[in-house]
Amino acid sequence: MPGEEPPPLAELKVVDFSWAVAGPMIGRTLADYGATVVKVESGRKVDTARLIGPYHDGRRDTENSALYDNCNLGKLGLALDMGHADAPAVARDLVTWADVVIESFSPGVMGRWGLDYASVASLNPRIVMLSTSIMGQTGPQRSLAGAGNIGSAMSGFQHLTGWPDLPPFGPYGPYTDFVGPRFSLCLLLAALDQRRRTGEGAYLDISQAETAIHLLGAQLAAYFAEGVVAEPGGNADPDWAPHGVYPCRRSHADEPGWIALSVRDDESWRSLVAVAGHPEFKDPRFATAAARHALAAELDDLLGQWTSTATAEDLEVRLQATGIPASVAASSRAMLDDPQLATYGHFVRVKHPESARAAIQRGPFHIDGIPPRLDRVAPSLGRDSRLVLCDLLGYSADRADGLERSGALR
Amino acid sequence: MTWPGPDSGAAATAPGSGYLGPYRVLDLTDERGLLAGRMLADLGAEVIQVEPVSGSSARTLSPRNSAGESLAWEAYARNKKGVTCALGTSAGRDLFLRLVAVSDFVIDSTEPGRLDELGLSYERLAAVNPRVIQVSIHGFGALGPKSGWAVSDLVLWAAGGALYPHRQLDRPPVRPSVPQAFLLASCDAAGAALVAHFARERSGAGTHVEVVAQQSVALTTLGRVLAYAVGDEQDVPEAPVRAPGTVMIDTSLSGSATGRSKWPVADGFMELHLAIGPAGGPWTNRFLRWLADQGAIDRDIADTDWSALPERLLSGEIDEAFLERARTAVGAYLARHTKRQILDAALAHRFIAAPILTTKDLAESPQLRERDFWFEVTASSGGSLAMPGPYARASNGAFTMRCAAPGVGQHNEEVYGAVLGLEAPTIEALAADGVI
């Protein structure tokens, strides 16, 4: 019966050394489904996600980042200065306690702390350790550091986002930070299932750039098959026309309006012509897909003249009513107001010590009978150090006090 | 089936191995979900693509080769077996349910309601196999006012909030030129299947799972779509246009809001963001000091601590002219050097800069070759091609790179014969009747 079973990952113990987005999003999902995830962080160099907005109430503070909260919901926070003399013993106890270790440092950093896979596995042979980095742990370019924009460049996505007549633009945000954790999660759960059956631990070496290259797999196959090099095409599609983003009348003074629409075939085009009621569209020159592709610049211009007379909200309803895929290009305001996202509970208010308006995003899985647990706000720095040391690792109060006094828990 | 050759560089292992070797997946997806089953197949699961008798609509998906064959099909249906089954007939439905009875997962990307109309609701599947996990990939979702809306990748990218903020100059907002929304949802579907699998190991029961592409896109915006909900007005500008005289304070490592991190170089473009603030400032400091050592930039710029710039910009102590002076010097230096030279310097001197690679560059990448990244296959049409192979390195046999994407009904005999135990005459009769 729903609500009575423990969550699916209830017995999973995770030590999460990772930071920013690509690593932490793995642990976020694990925590959503019941895992105990201990986030290890140091005040000497806080998680960079804390330094990136948006911020609750617009107030910039390392304890007030909605991005950080989104990536670390449900985790326990241990403050540990890995450079402190007392830290290695604590770290060894953590990896001995854990089923899973996640880290996203530059290759070699964990090794310098005696926490490379071989060392961890000698303490805990069943450990499943996952390292996620831009380029992977091996190879001549493994030390290339940076955030997802570097990954986007190294994975082909910078080149493939933008307009043919302009310099490359690249995808929105650090794209490989979003792709890496999705592949990481699948691999990690599969490794854990394998461990359940065989008792074997594993070391998993994820390159975020490589995972994103998988989302260009078709384009790579096209290159190897016939030497075709993929090029950016704005919002165009090789098969559908028209297919693009057009300006609309504003619904809000401070937000430009845009409608995205895509016409699959000639029949769909005729539906659009009927909706638009503009005589120019009835021109037989536009009747076939081949023609609409060839005349794309002219057609996009004409479409923009039509779309500019209405709001995007009005247009999307009218086009969808005839079966033409169309949508407002949603701003964050539009996202919050979207009844479709509300149906799925996408935006979730969380009880936050710093802000009454704090919110995070629900994860993408909707599993019947197994709701994610979304009520434990991401940890402030060291919020749960005591709990982790004493309740999870079994340290005495004296020992925990000693670590506090020595300065290791910062 | 074609085993990868010795030069494919991928770990070829026998069927039944890989992390997910014990499991069987029925894959009903089309162009809206192919990758999900493939991620499980890559890890060793036996994934059976169940197509209409005339073949999946995904077999026409761009990019296509000069013979009109889909490379997207080749890339996202590889490692799978292929059978045909006319789900719209009662015989086809019964045949499919017999497969469900001996399978662990069913993945579909059918529009909401359609499988119910065919008599293949989740309840029907669970009746023949209470352990089955069904994962449905939808555009807007099976619930809600937009459940019947028409979908396309561009439209989901727009509805998911990743399109609106992404404008180059005065152009309309732009998406990646290669469609991503359903690919991201497919990745999420694979993960969701495994979370439900963990639940099944405990409870013994399967369940129905839904993944919604609009939401998958919304989770690909660096939390930007949260800005309005949390009341961060500064984070909701009309990017990148802003009032003259104001300074864009972008303290991210990647500089996505600033949008000025692409530099022309001698043989293409480089990605390099002159980051300010605590996250990126130290990297910029190292880069600029290296530039100053080359004599390519004024010392006062290189000696500034870029970590502390946000406050100094907001207070007006430092202005845009300083930033532009830095940019001019950086641009002049980069323009005289190649992608390889700058990458080598970045690796050697620990600053952040990357060449903007094309698919040709990727195919020639020494890094990917060293990592055994590529998987070579002989396509069912006979041509040879390569594609991304394992999506990670693992210490024990995680992946099985087995075979090229299947031809239409290529494994009908194998699956209906060996898995369901049907005799050859029965299979022939099903084919003659158009059931398979």
Give structural notes.
The complex is a heterodimer of chains A (410) and B (436). Chain A is built from 17 helices and 12 strands. Chain A has 410 residues and is α/β, with parallel strands linked by helices. In chain A, the strands form 3 sheets. Chain A has a 6-stranded parallel beta sheet with strand order 3-2-1-4-5-6, sandwiched between helices. Chain B has 436 residues and is α/β, with parallel strands linked by helices. Helix content of chain B is 36%, strand content 12%. Chain B is elongated. Strand 6 of chain A pairs antiparallel with strand 12 of chain B, so a sheet runs across the interface.
Number of strands of chain B: 12
In terms of structural class, how would the helical and strand content of chain A be classed?
alpha/beta
Kindly report the average pLDDT value of chain A: 95
- The helix count of chain A comes to 17
Count of discrete alpha- or pi-helical segments spanning 4 or more residues of chain B: 18
Distance between the termini of chain B: 20 Å
Gap from first CA to last CA of chain A: 43 Å
Identify the biggest protein-protein contact and residues per side. A-B, 166 and 152 residues
Mind summarizing the main beta sheet of chain A? 6 strands, parallel
Low-confidence stretches of chain A: none
Task: Map the helices and strands.
The complex is a heterodimer of chains A (410) and B (436).
Chain A (H helix, E strand, L loop, with lengths): L12 E4 L7 H9 L3 E6 L24 H7 L3 E4 L7 H11 L2 E4 L5 H4 L4 H7 L4 E6 L14 H7 L20 H24 L3 E6 H7 L2 H10 L16 E10 L2 E8 L3 H11 L12 H6 L1 H12 L4 H10 L4 E3 L3 H6 L1 H5 L3 E3 L9 E3 L3 E3 L17 H8 L4 H10 L4
Parallel strand pairs in A: 1-2, 1-4, 2-3, 4-5, 5-6
Antiparallel strand pairs in A: 7-8, 8-9, 10-11
Helix pairs in contact in A: 1-7, 6-7, 7-8
Chain B lengths: L23 E4 L6 H9 L3 E6 L19 H6 L4 E4 L5 H12 L3 E4 L5 H4 L4 H7 L4 E6 L14 H7 L21 H23 L4 E5 H6 L8 H4 L31 E4 L2 E4 L9 H13 L5 H5 L5 H6 L5 H16 L3 H11 L4 E2 L3 H5 L2 H5 L3 E5 L5 E5 L4 E2 L17 H8 L4 H9 L4
Parallel strand pairs in B: 1-2, 1-4, 2-3, 4-5, 5-6
Antiparallel strand pairs in B: 7-8, 8-9, 10-11
